[in-house]
Amino acid sequence: MPNTHGTYRGGVLAARRNISNGFFKRNSAAILMGLTALVIAGTADLFAGLLLDQMEDYLLVIVGMMVLIYSAIGMRGNIFGALGSRLGTAMNIGTFEMSLKKGTVLRANVESALVLTLVMSIAMGFTTWLVAYLFFDGHTGLWDFIFISTIGGFIAGVIVLAFNIVIAYIGNKREWDVDNITAPLIAAAGDIVTMPMIFIATWMFFGLNDLSWGPTAVTVVSLILIIGTAIAVVRILRTKASKRDYSGESKRIFVHSLPILLVCLVFEIGAGILIQDEQDSLMEYSVLMIMIPAFLNQGNALSGMLTSRLSSMLHLGILEPRWTPRSGAWENFVLMYVCAMLTFLYIGLISFGASEIFNGKGVLGIATSMAIILIAGFIATTILNFLSYYVAIAAMKFGLDPDDHCIPITSSVMDLVGSAVLVSVTTFFI
Predict the structure, then answer these.
(1) What global pTM score does this model have?
(2) How far from the centroid of its chain's Cα atoms is residue 364's Cα?
């Protein structure tokens, strides 16, 4: 009598192997490029985490500094991650041109990104001052926060913008799908650049404060930055659209992005408040301080990577905007889990190793450190999968461009959710 049970079991196993092989074959390029970008991002975030661990004096002297730092990092990813997504879509549909001439897609994106950086830096300075005053009994002045936020934020923005253009140039030249690499690399660049620039701006602030005329200079510089930003906003709003080129695209991007970014700022501030509230506990363990930027960045990078892919698929008609995820969406979810778990494993190991090498504060074993980041990472990835999908679908349903709205919304929500998840899991273990 034939062994039907064995035959059935063998057939099931063979089918599973074929599905698995098919998945990895279809997504080999995305996995290779995505993981490479995520590992590079995680390694870069190691330096951001080490710098944060060394900023203890500034964090203690300026109450609310942690709120500003994480708001600035998140906003950098929101602005320039969305820019990268728009450029990726432009490449996929054939409208991208590697030129900064007036009327090109790249020129419109550059102009809008710089003005949005100035506006949001000022908004972050004001909001951080208000939060520090209301919730943490902070006494640092409004002009002081605007000075630090705008000086540090704008310099960081220019550097990240240049990096974004380089990625677009190389990706366009080599015909890469930049949707797989832009979000992780831009998020990492935002982390590794924003932290030192905020540090430098804070150092400049303290240097000026030591001078008799320093506080006046801080106020004057802050006012000049606000006036200059207002002029830039008026200029971009007066830009006229053209049917021949993309001259009016900068105005469209600015008008569509600003309300979303202001809403996202609430989530970024919420994430900063959560971390600020746990600052004393986190600062006891260097491994946690080193791990935080990388963990939050990976949440941003993965959500940005997923929303960029979904946006392009929606634009190209490959993915139907349905409320119930279809096979194409589920395959992308699995792709995120694969990339996330491998990347979080790597981040946990290098964070623990860096803490040991540099004789960090507090003793937290490798098993505990790995458990914290892997459990928190799995929970965060599950949330970002469904969040990214439904934000992209909602954008299409309401006639909005997913490239303008998805990354800022998902990144900001993931900053808040990721902070809450990491703090909760950390509290459980320690």
Answers:
(1) 0.72
(2) 27
